[in-house]
Amino acid sequence: MKSRFLSIAALGLVASTMAFAAQAAEVKNIVIVHGALADGSGWRKTADILEKDGFNVTVVQEPISSLADDVAATKRVLDLQTGPSLLVGHSYGGMVITEAGSRPDVAGLVYVAAFQPDRGESLISLASSKPAGSMNIRETKDGQYLYLDPATFAADFAADLPKDEAAFLAKSQVFASKAAFTAKIENPAWKTKKSWAVVASDDRSINPELERSMAKRAGSDVTEIKGSHAVFASQPEKVAAVIEKAAKDAGR
C-alpha cells in the first residue's frame, strides 16, 4: 500500500514538473494580428527583425468581417504553432487578441497602439470614451464596411512614415465591417495572461490617453514610443525590442 502511494506521489510530481516546464518554455512563436484599415504587410520590417533574432513570426491576415471571424482566423494560425506563442495586436487587433488569447498555448499578449477592452466593451464604446480627433472614415456604398479616405490616410494613420510607404498602406488597407467595430468582448484574456503595451505618443487614431488608461487598468508593462498609429512601421526596431522582451519575460 505504501509502495503504491509512493508511486502515485511520484507520478504527481512528474506531472507537476512537466506542467511547470511547459509554462516556463521559451517563447519563440510570435503571432501578429494587424489592425483595421491596414493589412499585415506593414509589419514586414518588424517581422524581419524578429526573424533575424531567432523568432518564428506569423502574421494573421484576418478578414475583419466580424470579431468572431477574426478570432477564428487567429486561432487557426495558433493551431499551426509548435510550443507557446506570444500574441501581438495592433489597433483593432487588440480586440482580437483579447478574445482569442485565453488559450493555454498563449504565453502573453502585446498591445501595440491597440484597444485593450474589458468584458462588455466594443471598439466603438472605447474610442468614443476618449476621442482622438476627426479621422476621415467613410462608408462603402452598401453601408456595411468602413475605410479611411486615402487622401488623408497619411495624416490620420501614418504621419511619420515616408510618403510612398504611407500611400502603400492606404492602398492595401482592409475595409472593416461595422459589425466588427460594435462587437463586445466576452472573455478578456489579459485578466489571466501577462500583457505588455506600446503607447504611441503621437497617435491620431487612438487617443494616447486612452491607450495609457487601458494599459493601466490591465496592469500591463508599458513602453511609450514617439510615433504615429503606424508605430510598428515607423519604429520597427523599438517595437521589436518590446516584443522580444515580452517573449523573454513570458517564458519565465
Please tell me about this protein's structure.
Mean pLDDT is 91; it is low at 1-23. With 252 residues, this protein is an alpha/beta fold. Helix 2 crosses helix 11 (236-250) and helix 3 packs across helix 4. The chain starts with a helix and ends with a helix. 44% of the residues are buried. Strand 8 (194-200), helix 9 (208-218) and strand 9 form a beta-alpha-beta unit. The protein has helices spanning 2-23, 44-52, 67-79, 93-100, 123-129, 153-157, 163-171, 178-182, 208-218, 231-234, 236-250; strands at 29-33, 56-60, 85-91, 106-114, 137-139, 145-148, 176-177, 194-200, 221-225. It has a single domain (29-250), classed as Alpha/Beta hydrolase fold, catalytic domain (Rossmann fold, 3-Layer(aba) Sandwich), CATH 3.40.50. Helices cover 43% and strands 19% of the residues. The protein has a six-stranded parallel sheet, sandwiched between helices. It is built from eleven helices and nine strands.
- Looking at the structure, what is the overall shape? globular
* SSE string: HEHEHEHEHEEHHEHEHEHH
- CATH fourth-tier homologous superfamily: Alpha/Beta hydrolase fold, catalytic domain
Structural class: alpha/beta
Task: Give the overall pLDDT as a whole number.
Answer: 91
Look at the structure and give the CATH class.
Alpha Beta
